[in-house]
Design brief:
The protein has about 110 residues and is mainly alpha-helical. The chain has 2 helices and no strands. It has a domain of about 60 residues. α1 runs antiparallel to α2. The chain is rod-shaped, with a radius of gyration of 25 Å. The mean pLDDT is about 80. This is ABC transmembrane type-1 domain-containing protein. It comes from Elysia marginata. Keywords: Membrane, Transmembrane, Transmembrane helix.
């Protein structure tokens, strides 16, 4: 009984930790994407507002910056996905080990008893 309770507690804790980590990562990435989108919009709108002699040059610069930002966003999303996958797989392995250990202990208890 004690073993089962211990397993349940461990599993619950692990699940909670994973959920919290994933949620935090997702929220942070969404915020970052939002900030980048705002920056991109500003960069695209500014040349139109500024206009005049340097408008064309500025648009080229803005375009370069936008491309770089989009690349950064893509990289960030990939990194977040990798982090989530790694965390989940680590948790699964830990859970498997714990469950295996519990089963072994339970079997030993039964055999000894």
């Amino acid at each position: 009984v004690v073993v089962v309770v211990g397993v349940v507690v461990v599993v619950v804790v692990v699940v909670v930790v994973v959920v919290v980590v994933v949620v935090v990562v997702i929220v942070v990435s969404i915020v970052l994407v939002g900030v980048k989108v705002v920056v991109i919009v500003i960069l695209l709108v500014l040349p139109i507002v500024v206009c005049g002699q340097n408008a064309l040059r500025y648009k080229v610069l803005a375009l370069v910056v936008v491309v770089v930002l989009i690349a950064v966003v893509i990289v960030a999303v990939v990194v977040v996905i990798i982090i989530i996958v790694v965390v989940v797989s680590v948790v699964v392995v830990v859970a498997e080990v714990v469950v295996f250990a519990v089963v072994v202990v339970a079997v030993l208890e039964v055999v000894v008893a």
